[in-house]
Design goal:
With 182 residues, this protein is mainly α. 77% of the residues lie in helices and 0% in strands.
Length: 182
């Protein structure tokens, strides 16, 4: 390999490695989306508090489920922002920070996928619960085919998460075996 080819190869490798920083603005965008969700949460919380005594228990339950949904989506965003940045862009160097999330110390692409799929299943569960609660009110009830579609989608999320967890387990076991052989 000539000196020129080696230099070209090294330059291409550096560009490819640097390209991970193109994700940083995407994570900043997700932080902005998190801000929008925080604003939405407080708007809904304000409606809940100011409607105390006026709203039915049914309405309160739906608003609270909506608040839980917002919190779960915010948790999902945090996992993607912090975990994705840590895994794919750069280390955060938070080893001595007292508020470092416990899961961040062992974040990997596999762990992140499992945590994200668990969060998505939780969010789907909230939406499914809201659909079943709405079923008791004919004015807000969805057609039965929508229920079926939501259940099928929810089950697909669960099966996908189980498949990812099983695949991750197999990959982990293979890595352990490879280490033992060397």
């Amino acid at each position: 390999m000539s000196a020129w080819t080696k230099k070209l190869t090294k330059t291409i490798e550096n560009i490819i490695f640097w390209s991970r920083w193109l994700q940083a603005p995407l994570y900043l965008g997700l932080i902005a989306a998190l801000g929008v969700y925080a604003y939405y949460f407080f708007v809904e919380l304000h409606h809940l508090v100011t409607g105390t005594g006026i709203q039915s228990e049914y309405d309160v339950m739906l608003v609270v489920l909506g608040l839980i949904d917002v919190v779960m989506i915010a948790n999902l965003l945090i996992m993607v922002i912090i975990g994705g940045y840590e895994t794919f862009v750069s280390r955060l160097k938070l080893d001595d920070h007292p508020d470092q999330p416990e899961w961040l110390s062992h974040v990997s692409a596999g762990v992140l996928k499992i945590k994200l799929s668990t969060a998505i299943i939780s969010i789907s569960s909230i939406h499914l619960l809201k659909t079943f609660i709405h079923a008791s009110d004919p004015s807000t009830a969805l057609p039965q085919e929508n229920w079926v579609a939501q259940v099928v989608i929810h089950m697909t999320f669960i099966i996908s998460a189980l498949a990812m967890a099983y695949t991750d387990k197999l990959m982990y076991q293979s890595a352990l075996l490879a280490r033992e052989e060397h």
